[in-house]
């Protein structure tokens, strides 16, 4: 039973590591050649967080859901 669970979790992890877009992007950024994309990726996160915060405030103040 434990071996079956272990095998199933390993297969799920392999699938997620291989095919999920966020993992593919992270793997590309973490390589030696991808280091140049680390800073632009972080800079893209800042506007995303600002827009998410703005949307949260808008919804809390009775804006459209």
What does this protein look like?
The chain crosses the membrane at residues 37-59. With 65 residues, the chain is mainly alpha-helical. It has two domains: 1-30; 36-65. 77% of the residues lie in helices and 0% in strands. The protein contains three helices and no strands. It is flat, with a radius of gyration of 19 Å. The N and C termini lie far apart (46 Å). The mean pLDDT is 86.
| Biggest sheet character | none
- Level of helix content? over 70%
* Rg, Cα atoms, Å: 19 Å
Poorly predicted regions are none
Head-to-tail CA distance between termini: 46 Å
How many domains, in number, for the residues? 2
Element-by-element helix/strand order: HHH
- In round numbers, the mean pLDDT is 86
Shape: flat
The amount of beta strand, in percent, is: under 5%
Strands, count: 0
Helix count from the secondary structure assignment: 3
SSE-based structural type: mainly alpha
Assembly state of the chains shown: single chain
What's the SSE blueprint?
Elements: H1 2-19, H2 21-29, H3 38-60
Brief synopsis:
The chain has 65 residues and is mainly α.
List keywords for this structure.
flat, 3 helices, mainly alpha, 65 residues
